[in-house]
Amino acid sequence: MMRNVFFLLALSMMVSVNALCQNIKFATVDLEYVYANLPSYKKLMAEIDTASSRYQAVQKEKLAIYQQKMQAYQQLGKQTPEPVLKDKATELGALETSMQEFQANADRDLRTKYASKFPEIEKAVKAAIAACAKEFQVTYISRKYADYNAGESKPLVVFSADMQTDLTDQILTKLGVTTHAEKGKKRQHGILK
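C-alpha cells predicted for Outer membrane chaperone Skp (OmpH):
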C-alpha cells in the first residue's frame, strides 16, 4: 500500500512538473552581435571613434611639444642660471599637467557622449526583444555570453541546442537590419566557457 502511495505521489509530481515545463519556453540572444549589426549603434561607435581620433591627434601634438621642450631643457648646460632652469622646469610641469587634464577631459567627454546616446539604442533593442518574445511565445530570453564589463564571470545562458530558440536574426529584423554577415547561419548555443 505504501509503495502505491509513493508511486502515485511520484507520478503526480512528474505530471505537474511536465505540465509546468510545457508552459515555459527559453530562448537566447547574442546581444553583442545584435549591437554590432545595428546601424544606430554603429553610428554611435563611429562618432566616438572619430572624436577619440581627434583627441589622440591633439594629445600627440601636445606630447611632441613637451618632448621638444624636455630635450631643450636637458641640453641646457651647467652654466645656465638657476632662475632659467626653474622657469624651464615649471614650464615642463605645466605642460605635463595640461596633457593629463586634457586626457581626463577627453575620456570624460567620450563617456558622456556614449552615456547620452546609448540608452535610447538599448531601449529599442529591449523593445525588439520583448516583441520577439511575445511573437514566439518565449517565456525567458537570456544572453548567450557573459557580460564581463558588468562583472559576470560566466554567461547567463540556458542551454539551447535548437536553432529555433535563437532569436538574434529575428531581433535584428525587428530593428530594421535585414542583411548581415551571419544571417541564417548556425551559431553556437549553450554555455560557453
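Confidence is low (pLDDT under 50) at residues 157-162, 189-193.
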